[in-house]
Structures are given as structure tokens and as C-alpha cells.
Amino acid sequence: MAVTTKLYLASLVALLAVLATATDGSPELSATYYKKTCPNVQNVVRTVMAHRVASEPRMSPAILRLFFHDCFVNGCDASLLLDRTDDMESEKDAVPTNVSLDGFDVIDEIKSALEHNCPATVSCADILALASRDAVALLGGPSWSVPLGRKDSLYASKDAAENDLPNPHGDLGDLLKSFEEHGLDARDLTALSGAHTIGKAHSCENYRDRVYGGEGANIIDPSFAERRRQSCEEGSGEAPFDEETPMVFDNSYFQDLIAQRGLLTSDQELYTHGGPVSDLVKMYAMHGETFFADFAKAMVKMGSIRPPQWMQAEVRLNCRVVNH
């Protein structure tokens, strides 16, 4: 009887310890999650990223964008990486939010290297988180300790990708609401928007309302608007978010907002209405180190957005398909 009681108590203590690791029952994320099972994981990710960014700098903003678009749809679960099947639509096909995404082959390359080093161990969701950190650091931005231990979803949601991602034409109220729904506040919104200090918009439709007299057109530098109209009329409409240093991760994005040279309506909205968000823009424009620190904190916070409790998960062997 005493032995049975001791075993029961031991099992109860172990169960409570597991439940205490997170409020939703999921294990806490930890920077040392792979310390024993895949100690070289960060070096592998960094090596592949350094090689790819050196040959194609555009892969840095591409990978960073993948992480944002994944985490804002049912949490950071690598659902964005799943290809379409007969039974499931892909988030990659979400219009207009995801059809211009790039960098999937970089994640495939990292996953292949890790499967060689530590098979069936590192999740695609963790690869995205690590690759995003390195994408920023490789272009001169901050680095940070990435909490790990995410799992990969078995499902994708094209509908959620078309409805849950922030709208490039949205006003400040819409943006604040979208971020709040994911547990992110105004400071997180402002800092994370600074990711637009690198990369480009891929279509004139993303900023047409800013440069052709639509909403937000009265809050724009005239010469900037003229250059962007030329972009629309001369070709694909691709345009850098940051004209001066489009492939350097710095605080120029915020300086552009103050000069009324934000590319998207959702960019310029951060500095249109005054108040706390505009104050943050001014602070980041003057103090790049403060922006770097807040961006790193916000990336960790966004990277901790959990998938719904009901969602089944695994460590995928191939980031594009579920295990069978």
C-alpha cells in the first residue's frame, strides 16, 4: 500500500511539473532545447544562411517575411511551409498576402542539412525562428537568444492567411487591433514594423493608394510619390521600403516615416496621428540602439505565439509535407 501511494505521489508530482511548464500545457520554449539532441543546430542554420545571403541578399528579408506570415496565422507552427495537397489548400496560395513570398528553398536547404546532422529532431518552426534571427544579424541588425522547442502543424489554413495578416492598406486602429489579437502591443507593432528597413514591396497594388491620390496621399513627400508612380508605370512596381539603405538593417525606416516617405499606408500610419506610436517612431529614428533592443524583444515575443491547443503537431522530416 505504501509503495503504491509513493508511486502515485511521484507520478502526480511529475504530472504537475509538466503542467507547470506552460499555461496551455505546452512545454516552455528554451534556448537550450536542443543542447543534447542537436547541439550544432545554430551553427548549421547560420552557415546555410550566411552562404545564401552572401550570394542573394534578398533572402534576408524573404526569410524574415516568412516568419512573420507564419506566426500571424495560428501561431508559429510552420504551417506556411506546407505545400497544397488534394485534401488541403496551402497558405502559400493566399491572395494577395502570400503569393509573392520567397525563400522556401533556403528553409529546405537548412532542413536537409539538419536531417543529416540530427535526423527527425529539429522542427521546421524552429528553423524559421533561427533563420529569421540570422537574416537580421547578417544585414547588420541585432542578434538575440532564440527560445526553441516549437512543433510543426499538420494543417495549413489558407482562409486564415487571407484574413489574419495585417493589411498594408490598414489604418493605425486596424494595425493595433491585429497585433493585440496576437498578444502584441503598440511598442511591438512599431518595433516589428521596422523590419521594413530591408526588402521591398513586390507590386504597385501594395502602395498605389499612397501615390495616386488615395487615402494617405496627402501625407507624402511629393518627390517620393513621383518616383513611386514611375515604379508603377515602368514595370512590375517593385519598390524598396527604405530607399537609402534597402539591404542594411538600420533605423532609416523610421527616419523615412518622419520625412513622409513611408511606402505603405500601414507604414506611414505609425507617424500620422501623433501620440505614443508616433513618439516611438521619433525615438527609434534618433536612437538605433533602442530600436535594435526593442526589435529583438518583439521578435522573441512574436516567436512565442502558440498554435491553438487542439492543433496536432509533429517534427516534420520535410518542411513541405506532413509525415506519413
Tally of individual domains: 2
- In angstroms, what is the radius of gyration? 21 Å
Termini separation comes to: 44 Å
- Main beta-sheet strand count, sense and barrel state: 2 strands, antiparallel
Number of helices: 14
Binding site for Ca(2+) 1: 70, 73, 75, 77, 79, 91
Disulfide bonds: 38-118, 71-76, 124-319, 204-232
Catalytic activity: 2 a phenolic donor + H2O2 = 2 a phenolic radical donor + 2 H2O
Keywords: Calcium, Disulfide bond, Glycoprotein, Heme, Hydrogen peroxide, Iron, Metal-binding, Oxidoreductase, Peroxidase, Pyrrolidone carboxylic acid, Signal
Task: Describe what you observe in this structure.
The chain is mainly α. Helices cover 47% and strands 2% of the residues. It has two domains: 41-165 and 305-314, Orthogonal Bundle (Peroxidase, domain 1), CATH 1.10.520.10; 184-302, Orthogonal Bundle (Peroxidase, domain 2). It has helices spanning 2-19, 41-55, 59-71, 104-117, 124-137, 158-163, 172-180, 186-193, 208-211, 222-234, 252-258, 265-268, 275-286, 288-302, and strands at 152-153, 200-201, 239-240, 313-314. It has a two-stranded antiparallel ribbon. A two-stranded antiparallel sheet has the order 2-3. Helix 8 (186-193) packs across helix 13, helix 8 (186-193) packs across helix 14 and helix 13 crosses helix 14 (288-302). The longest helix has 18 residues, at 2-19. The N and C termini lie far apart (44 Å).
List keywords for this structure.
324 residues; mainly alpha; Peroxidase, domain 1; Peroxidase, domain 2; two-stranded antiparallel sheet; 14 helices; disordered N terminus
